[in-house]
Design goal:
By secondary structure, the protein is an all-alpha fold. The protein has 3 helices and no strands.
Length: about 110
C-alpha cells in the first residue's frame, strides 16, 4: 500500500482519540480534589452518625443500669436475711447505679 493511503487514518486519529485523551487529562487534573474530598468524608462524622453513636451509648448504659438494679434487688433481699457480704455488694451496686444515672436521658412522664 502506498504511504499516502494511511494519511486519512492519521488525520482522523486525533479526532477519534481526542475525547479519550481529554477525559484522561480531566481525570488526572481532578484526582487531587477527589482524594481530598474522600479524606474529609472519612475524617468527619456526620450528625446522623454522631446521633447513632450517642443512642448506642445510651442503650448500653441503660442495659448496664438495668442489670445493676436487678443485682441490687437480689443483694438487698439477701442483706435483709442477714448476709453481710450481700449488704456490701448491694452498697457497691447502688454506687455504680448512681454514677451511671446522670448519663441517661430523663424520660418525660
Amino acid at each position: 500500500m502506498p504511504r499516502f493511503a494511511y494519511l486519512p487514518l492519521a488525520a482522523l486519529a486525533p479526532l477519534l482519540l481526542g475525547g479519550c485523551l481529554a477525559k484522561t487529562a480531566l481525570d488526572i487534573v481532578t484526582l487531587p480534589v477527589t482524594i481530598a474530598s474522600r479524606g474529609v468524608d472519612l475524617a468527619t462524622t456526620s450528625q446522623s452518625e454522631a446521633d447513632q453513636k450517642r443512642g448506642r451509648e445510651i442503650r448500653q448504659r441503660e442495659e448496664q443500669v438495668g442489670k445493676l438494679q436487678r443485682d441490687y434487688g437480689r443483694q438487698m433481699a439477701k442483706c435483709q436475711d442477714g448476709d453481710r457480704n450481700a449488704c456490701e455488694q448491694a452498697h457497691q451496686s447502688y454506687a455504680q447505679i448512681q454514677q451511671l444515672l446522670p448519663g441517661l436521658p430523663v424520660e418525660p412522664n
